[in-house]
Amino acid sequence: MVAFIVRRVIAAVLMLAVVSAATFAIFFLIPRALGQTPEGMASRYVGRDATPEAIQGAVKRLHLDDPLIVQYGRFAKGIVAGEDYSLGPRKAECPAPCFGYSFNNNQPVWPTLLDRLPATMSLAAGAAILWLIAGVSIGIVSALRRGTALDRAAMTVALAGVSLPIYFTGLVSLSVFAYTLGIFPGGGTYTSISENPIAWFQALVLPWITLAFLYAALYARLTRAGMLETMGEDYIRTARAKGLKESTVVTKHALRATLTPILTIFGLDVGLLLGGAVLTESTFSIPGVGKLVIDAIRGNDLPVVLGVTMFAAFFIVLANLIVDILYAVVDPRVRLS
Amino acid sequence: MTTAPGSSAPDSFLELRDLRIHFPTEDGVVKSVDGLSFKLDRGKTLGIVGESGSGKSVTSLGILGLHKGGRAKISGEIWLDGEELVGASVDHVRTLRGKKMAMIFQDPLSSMHPYYTVGAQIIEAYRIHHKVSKQVARKHAIDMLGRVGIPQPDKRVDSYPHEFSGGMRQRAMIAMALSCDPELLIADEPTTALDVTVQAQILDLMLDLQREFNSALIVITHDLGVVAELSDDILVMYGGRCVEYGSAEDIFYRPEHPYTWGLLGSMPRLDREPTERLMPIKGSPPSLINVPTGCAFNPRCAYEGRTGGKATTEVPQLAETEGGHLVRCHMPPAERRAIWENEIKPMLEST
């Protein structure tokens, strides 16, 4: 088991290295390959009407005229050990993990990201709890009551849930519950939990429900399908043949096998959301990582986009790692391979 | 659904009377079992033989009551040790399941839960019917694993099913089925998923254990070799019905149904000349929704022309031919015996 975990951690680190190389390639190698000069790259760092001297200064400061492999080495080193951009009298130290400075406000990217993380985490965690409980229980009940009116109603709602985009359900819920009925505050009212827990909660109720609705619908369908498949397994027949009560057959034998694959998907989904729930954050104007990256893309803020990309990839790799290890705990067959 | 008036508890340990298990589907009613009757005593073994879809497995699950509460329509009577089970409550049959009657399934890998250790699954089976501590049940599980011939049972009890070999897994499955000393044991294709070398070991083991426990044993298989090894009596099923029933000698030395001849002719044998061909049964098993009219076997029967046209119009009755040997065929007994002696037997026998 320890060897298994060590192997998985090493694989995860390697995965991140590959992701960093791919990210670097997208942002630096491909533009150069398409004919962009170091000066052209540098001009994005110094503003619209920069003098040739200023551009040359940026090329030197950012080492954009180095061979690309050296540039990647510096990029990777910046993430692991930090980077020192000081040249001459101007000092700019960027501690690890360094993704450079935002074009827009000249702030280092990493602290900006950390600033935005609590909002994204609040959104993802709350929604995840909601959708896991709702989706899985609806899926189980639907599978056990297969073909009944209850099953059909649940699956119709679930189909709507997976089909309707968040910017639709989000706007409708805002319009009805916030602006017409006034039960919840509208968009853009996010407050941090340390500042005002009650306001934090109130502002997040609608985003939670909106985001959870989509995922709960997905999970209900997955759970139902998994449960139906499991209930047809030979070992369920064996459990019944032993004389087990049907309730025990469901809870002890069927659920465990059904929930294991769900667990995998859940880990990956949460990992994905921690890298920014772009649509939900935009719809409700929550200052999270997803909102940050959307604003950065609109403003051509390359370092921020790059930072968020690596950041999101990190969460997905981390989620993968955790899921793999949990899976080995749950399913003894995994430990072998 | 309820016990027919006037019916009474039989002398036999297990008796099925006109058991019917039908599944309504959108395409029509699937008559998986359609009027099956037989008797079985303690210490005896009945082999049920037939192709896939002949109703063998549905019958065994039906005896265990595993179709109860589902979509299946069940009628007839199942008497187990003086108790009628078709009319009994779901909950009551459940308490008998695993204790009074137990089952061994075909594929021991898929029939055991992959996430629980073999020991945990035996302990669970034992503790459903015995209110004992986990430690006591664990001792019993180790004891059972030892009895079915698993080496180092005190270590293997904590292994997972996938860590066992196929034969060991089936032994573990048998240990699980026998953990509560069932009086009726049903083995559904117990050796089909196993290597040939292991098959004989498992069959031996089952015979030994049956003698030890004096239980009634039903072996369901499509492999006549398996039933030849184990059975006192053999029941040949076709299209949800019994087409021939008799002692093992009756079926192997004096078979009278063309379908049984076909099964015997489909059995590869080493003592046959390599130049001789198998005599497979043509066609495929009948649809259980649209069972052929008349004799269900008529579309595949080589002797259909010798029934005077009754094959396609009239359902043959299961009639006694001699000393408890029952055959469901329109041909007169003398003609059937003549065909067996003069046409089939010489072809099956080696030079």
Automatic annotation (TrEMBL), chain B:
Residues 14-264 form the ABC transporter domain. One of its GO terms (molecular function) is ATP hydrolysis activity. One of its GO terms (cellular component) is plasma membrane. The keyword Transcription does not apply. It is a peripheral membrane protein. It holds the Pfam family oligo_HPY. Keywords: ATP-binding, Cell membrane, Membrane, Nucleotide-binding, Transport. PROSITE patterns: ABC_TRANSPORTER_1, ABC_TRANSPORTER_2. Transmembrane segments: none annotated. One of its GO terms (biological process) is peptide transport. Its main location: membrane. It is found in: Cell membrane. Belongs to the ABC transporter superfamily. PANTHER family: DIPEPTIDE TRANSPORT ATP-BINDING PROTEIN DPPD, OLIGOPEPTIDE TRANSPORT ATP-BINDING PROTEIN APPD. This is Peptide/nickel transport system ATP-binding protein.
